[in-house]
Structures are given as structure tokens and as C-alpha cells.
Design a protein that fits this description.
315 residues; mainly alpha; Annexin V, domain 1; 3 domains
Amino acid sequence: MSPLLRHIVRTMIRRVKKKDDILATNTHADFLPGVLSYAHVLSLMAGAEMNDRFDARARRPQNEEVSIPLAEVLKKCNAIAGHSRPHVMAMLKRMEKLNLVSIESGRSERLNNSAGRYSASDGAAGRQLVTFDPVKITERAQQVANHDLDVSISSELELIELDDLEALISVDRKVILNKLSHAEIAEDIFAFRKTKVLNYVEEKGLSYFSRRNVRGAGELNSLDDLAFVDQRTLFEAVSAFDTYDLAKLLSASVGQPIDERLQSVMTEARKKEVSWVMRREIKIDPVEIVEIEQRFIDTVRALKSPAAHAAPAES
């Protein structure tokens, strides 16, 4: 095989294996026994960890948590269950959502004591710790397997992260977000985590969900980005733009959010001019529309550039 064809085949094999791991960890039938199995593995590892601490188990408080390097957990689960690294990480993240474990950066002294157990090739995994209660973890994991969890937690398990959705359906996340913003995806497909929303409300306030971040001239690449441009700039751009081109632009954008956005900043006289042109049944050329869109974006960029803001001040 040629080097190019060999590279393509190997890349396809890696992608298929990654998808298999993601599909496996998102299968309900495989997930429930997996949580319990992983809980038993972590409990056994916690017993070995405490034995290494000069028989500190006898002096350990009943509810003390144990921290184990993430790299060790990855290696142990791979050795026992034969699961790949993405599979193990996905399972641990699900256990973290159920408050069975927590994954966080470890303290330097704790990591120095365990430095001999994993190599530098483990990267970020070697600097993270999996923390859990070795006494309660198996009991709570058994509740998951028996479907005895609260309804809210059960519904949480059905959620899928954007990264997993991107890999599962093989669609770029930008396309997914764009379709969401234009209401092209059914509402029952996506959901919001109540705990995450409340955390953002507490940290950043309600304005975080209503306030739009103003974008600079360099961040305007398409008509969708005009949703983040202030009304004054859009008003000046619409007023300065050619009437015939503006009519074509609006005709091609009927029903889209940008159509309503531009209509809202137009004066009544400007609306009448554009409406008169649109009633003439003008022909829409896709190639010409792309050029018109680019010219309009360039007009907005020019108005938002520092030179444009400095000119009125000097005058």
C-alpha cells in the first residue's frame, strides 16, 4: 500500500474505534453494570492504597475519602476490564455526575509520593486525582444498578455532552450550534442542567443569559455574527447601503433572524424604499447574494473599526 492509503486506512480505524467506545459508554444496558464494576475496582484500589500508608486504616475516620491518581485508575481498569482510555474516562465522568467520585487536580506532595507508580507519558492524567468514599461507593453504585436513584438523577443520565453528540452523529459542533440558534432542531432534543444554570446565575447573574457580547470588527465573518452587533452600527450600515442590494439581501433572508434584526433598525422611509424594490419581483442570484452579504459585512466592519470611531471625535 502507498503511504497515503496506509495513513487513510489507519485514520479510519482509529475513528471507528473511538466511535465504538463512545457508543458503548452511552448504551444504557452496558452502563449500569459498568458503574458497579468500576466502583468495586476503586474500592479494591482504595484498600491497597490504605495498606501502603503504614497500616493507617485502623486510625482512619469512618467517612474519610481516598484519593488515587487518575493514571493508576486508567491502567487498572484497562488491565481488568480491557476498556480503552476514552471508555474509562467516559465512565468516570458519569460516576462524577452521580457524585460517586470527583476528579480534580492533585496536590504536589500527594503526587510526589505516587510519582513512581506512573510515567510522565500519562500527561494530565498523572496530575489528577480520583477522590471517593471507599465505604459508600459500592453501596451507592448498587443503587444505580437497581434503578433506585432519584428521578432527577435518572434523567441526568440521559443527557449527552456536545462533544459526545458531535462524535456520535459526525456533525461539526458549529453546525449544531448554528441550527440550535435558528430553531432548526426540535426542542425536545436538547436540555439544560438545572444545577449548571443555577451555578451560572449565582456566579454571573441573570444578565449572563440575556446580555449579548458585542463583537469586534475582526470577529464578523457571516450574517449570523450580526446578531452581536449593536443597533446603532446596524442602523448606520443599513442607511449607507445600496437600496437595491439591501432589498436583495432581505429577500434572500426572509424568515431568518437577521431579517428581523435589520428590519428593526430601518426607518419607515427606508422600509418603504426597500419594500418597493422587493415588490418588483427581483431575481435572486446565489452568487450575487454571497457578494452582497460580504459587502454588507465589510460595511459593518468599516463602521466598527477604530478609525471610524475616531473620525466623529476629531470632527
